[in-house]
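Sample A.
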Amino acid sequence: MNIDEIVTKLVGAVSPVGDSGVDETRFHNLMSLTALVDCLLLDIRNASSYAGRPEASMNKIGLYARRYLSEVHYQTGFAAAREKELKPAVLVERDDHEP
């Protein structure tokens, strides 16, 4: 079993199926998954601070983390959004039910 399979077993499926009961559970699973991703990205960001260190092993970790974050930034479309001077979509939870 790989790490992806382990996380899926712990968090649960996140893809909607069109059944409101199932999809509500999957929405909560998605919220858990994104909370985990936030924690992991923070760890990676902290590791990126070691880029440029004189110790080769620390610099290696820092550079890898920095490159990874740059790739995530690029793949998520934020770079393209900046080029077009568009802001990426942000999910905002509302308490009211106004359209």
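Sample B, a different protein:
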Amino acid sequence: MKAKDHSACNSSGGFMKVKIEVDLRPFTVPNFVMVNVASRPMSDVDSEPKYSMADLDVDTLERLCSEFKASVFKKAGKQPRPVCESS
């Protein structure tokens, strides 16, 4: 993660910059995906149908990952970098 610059006033009245670097944990990858079941209450989440990640096809995994990435950037209020396609 890139550290944010923090400015502070030193004893002579000038400013100095400090960079702080932190080690972030990656997102936790789930072992399964749950099926949306509209007729069940939220308190019944443990009994919802689930599918192992290994049971999903590549197209489904890519779609779910793309949706997750879009949600992360939206929540952060940022735009992802454009993907360069090679010809």
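Observation for Sample B: The helical segments are 58-76.
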